[in-house]
Amino acid sequence: MPHAAWIELEAIARRDADARISDQFAADPDRLTRLTLDAAGLHLDLSKQSWTRSGFEAALALARAADVEGRRGALFGGEAVNATEGRAVLHPALRAPVGAAFQALGETVSAEVDAVRAQMRDYAHAVRSSIETGASGRPFKTVVHIGIGGSDLGPRLIWDALRPLAPAIDIRFVANIDPRDMAEALTGLDPETTLVVVVSKTFTTQETLANAEAAKAWLAAALPADGMERHFIGVTAAPERAAAFGCGRTFAFRDWVGGRYSLWSAVSLSCVIGLGWEVFQGFLDGAAALDRHFLEAPLEANAPVLMALAQIYNVDGLHRPSRTVAPYAHGLRRLPAFLQQLEMESNGKRVRRDGAPIGRQTCPVVFGEPGTNGQHAFFQQIHQGPQVVPAEFIIVASTDGTTSEAPLWANALAQGQALMQGKTEAQAHAELIGSGASEAEADRLAPHKTFPGNRPSTAILMDRLTPQTLGALIALYEHKTFVEGVIWDINSFDQWGVELGKVLARAVLKDVAAGAPSADLDPSTAALLTRLLK
Fold first, then answer.
1. Is it the case that residue 403 has pLDDT exceeding 80?
2. Cys bridge to 457: 59, 205, 232, 416, which one at CB 3.0-4.6 A?
3. Catalytically annotated residue among 3, 296, 376, 510
4. The sheet that has 457-464: what strands, in order across it?
5. Which of 179, 183, 187, 251 is nearest to 210 (CA)?
6. Is residue 429 among the annotated active site residues?
7. Cβ neighbours for 253, distance < 8 A, ≥ 6 positions apart
């Protein structure tokens, strides 16, 4: 661990904790130039972050001391960066150009990636052109995509961001084990024209298989047994289990593809069917462009590195345990939920790679909503609450490619400005007097209209939300998450915290089947179970 670099960063952060962000532009004349950059169609502005020039330099020194460049090489080189599971982590291989030469633990994998992509392309074309049909010979009009976690959040984000207003083939997503979710997805659908895509890495995920069984029963009630397999597609790293379940075809991905990094793979087959291969290829190309930037740009001008360092400075230097993400584009409304899994499942860890306690904060709580919606909800807290909550604004100049969305992005710019500048009590008092309030009234109201300001934000701009810019945006956050894990010295690619509750749920279900709580249940859980059984 780079102890000296951590000590230096924390010392500078304590010293500069009260420094006004707005004052830094005069104190550091090249601040705007140094803290804005372009990468793969994205423009980033980190000049409204809390660091002073010395704080920024200390954060860079920390990245170098943690050997971010060396660990980056290990990731792209296919080494076992997921040490607890002994796996390479090669989602960049999934979006690399055809003919790349990625290896996982010394095994060449790019040819296999290319083959699966060709299978996805050909199958999607067959469905979209009505060559591939259902049991009755009718073309498919709807895909029901069943998955959970990374098998749901990534494809759902892609579809929301890129879907046409009136798609030729629609997609409905089911993730929740609550039967209401499946019922809503199937409402109005014709089994003869419905294709079900079941996505599960192991094909043992409890929630996904329960929903898949419900979909199978729905199809079986309307379709002949002969040909029903044409309506079921499996996407998995365990194709034999998918075939045993009844999937007529399977599309594979390997164990070096983590769930929350899997949207580049056959996990997004539903989106390829709904959008067409050309759109998905553009999505892959945008991510590959960001990969090249991450590999080639120096640390001080590297977008994922600077995003990671800003977060670490806020979390560990200034003790800010949460962050909000506000996309000012309706198509990106699922981005905060996607980032919750990407970041909190990756870096919500308490021990280092060697198993020793970290001894400092790691991933903050990530939350958010589309921009103008959030302004009328939790923005009150981030402007005037006692906690400082760093913000990220995702801004799209034109959401339809022709119209400038000035009312939308003007709000985003104003929010970042307001968070930084704030409003003093004297300014609020003067405004009240200027609007005709009495001195007593101004004295009474001014404290309520005061904004502390000095609250950091990052802006990420794109001209349009295209397949390429969406791919670049997601890859930006993936690499940001990786860099943070390197600096915190944690494994960003396992997720043991998901397991315990699922194991205990199976035990509770045994008690449900028995009709009473078992003796080893704690008193609270036993009482709740008893009440629910009644």
1. no
2. 416
3. 376
4. 36-39, 42-45, 457-464, 391-398, 322-328, 365-367
5. 179
6. no
7. 116, 201, 235, 236, 237, 262, 265, 266, 267
* pTM higher than 0.85: yes
User: Is 534 a known active-site residue?
Assistant: no
Buried b (16+ CB within 10 A) or exposed e, 44-59: bbbbbbbbbbbbbebb
Alpha-carbon distances, residue 76 vs 102, 105, 217, 433 (angstroms):
8, 11, 43, 61
Three-class secondary structure of residue 22 per DSSP: helix
What is the Cα 34 distance to its own chain's centre?
27
Quickly count: other Cβ atoms within 10 Å of residue 519's Cβ: 6
Average pLDDT over residues 382-400: 93
pLDDT exceeds cutoff 80 at 1 = no
Measured between alpha carbons, how far is 199 from 303 in angstroms, rounded to an integer?
32
Whole-angstrom distance, CA of residue 205 vs CA of residue 319: 37
What are the structure tokens assigned to 473, written together?
């945006």
**Could you confirm whether 349 is annotated as catalytic?**
no
For the sheet with 249-252, list strands across it.
170-174, 142-146, 194-199, 232-236, 249-252
Q: Which residue has the tokens 């790691």?
A: 362
Whole-angstrom distance, CA of residue 453 vs CA of residue 384: 8
Please, what is the angle between helix 303-312 and helix 53-65, to 10°?
110
Cβ neighbourhood burial of 274 (10 Å; 0-12, 13-18, 19+):
buried
Residue that the structure tokens 């330099």 belong to: 57
Instruction: Say what the pLDDT of residue 116 is.
Output: 96
Q: Would you tell me how many other CB atoms lie within 10 Å of the CB of residue 511?
A: 18
* Residues above pLDDT 70, as percent of the chain: 99
Q: From residue 166, how far is each of 109, 163, 272, 401 by CA, in Å?
A: 37, 8, 16, 17
Q: What is the DSSP code (8-state) at residue 138? A: P
CA distance 346 to 492: 4
Q: Which of 107, 213, 278, 502 is catalytic?
A: 502
Q: What is the DSSP string of 397-466?
A: EESSSSS--HHHHHHHHHHHHHHHH-B-HHHHHHHHHHTT--HHHHHHHGGGG-B-----EEEEEEEE--
Q: Which of 79, 132, 192, 345 is catalytic?
A: 345
In angstroms and rounded to an integer, the radius of gyration of the C-alpha atoms of the chain is 25
Closest CA to 464 of 4, 90, 41: 41
Decide if pLDDT at 111 tops 60: yes
